[in-house]
Specification:
- The chain is an alpha/beta fold.
- It folds into 2 domains: about 160 residues, Alpha-Beta Complex (Spore Coat Polysaccharide Biosynthesis Protein SpsA, Chain A); about 80 residues.
- The protein is built from 7 helices and 13 strands.
- Strands 3-2-1-4-9-6-12 form a 7-stranded mixed β-sheet, sandwiched between helices. Strands 5-13-7-8 form a 4-stranded mixed β-sheet. The chain has a two-stranded antiparallel ribbon with strand order 10-11.
- The protein starts with a strand and ends with a helix.
Length: about 250
Amino acid sequence: MRLAVVILTFNEAENVVACIETLRFADQIVVFDSFSTDQTADLASRAGARVIQHPFADYASQRNAALEAVSDFADWLLFVDADERVPVALADEVRQRIEQPGFVGYRIPRDNYIFGRLTRGAGWYPDYQTRLLRVGAAHYDPARQVHELVILDGAEGALDHALIHYNYRDLRQFVAKQRRYSAYDARVLYEQGIRPKPQNYVLQPLRQFWWRFITLRGYSDGLHGLRLSWLMAWYELKKYLLLRELWRREKL
């Protein structure tokens, strides 16, 4: 079975070479680049990756385009982000599983490092991602432009070994990304015709905090888990405030 690993990139010069170095087990390494304005494409090419440039519309369509691009030379595709690394144990497991019949996709757990710390509570582990896909038997739902959803034409399995994800270097990066997610989620609720209720501004953040800190064992990460649970509750509140603003604008 021929395996391609695809890294979606835009201005990932800081990460792309280190990521590529962990992917040598693949038959083909592809950097699927959204016309980066830094040295991403050049560094990737010099590191031995095949660089394909494709204009970015949204994550779902970009991943579908990557699946189409590798269809001539790969039987399986593994998606890896530039801030992720594939340890040897996971690489070996991937090569073994693609030779076995029965599944057309596999979920992979992730070890998330947030603010430099391995985080196991508050929902960041096992953090399964469906990333190993049989080419021709998988595509992404075009309606889910963020938080992409894989649709498989067959059964899905799960791998045992984890990707390493260097997620959120610092608080600034965390805040910037959560702002984007909150705005996107508010827009989805608005398009579904959902209006915020007064209790949403209190109950939804409290539920989010309880879910993260208690149900998903954020407490197991101590003060680090407490901070993350509080931050996620805050951005749950922001989502409903943004939703309220969308409905207010409609009345103007």
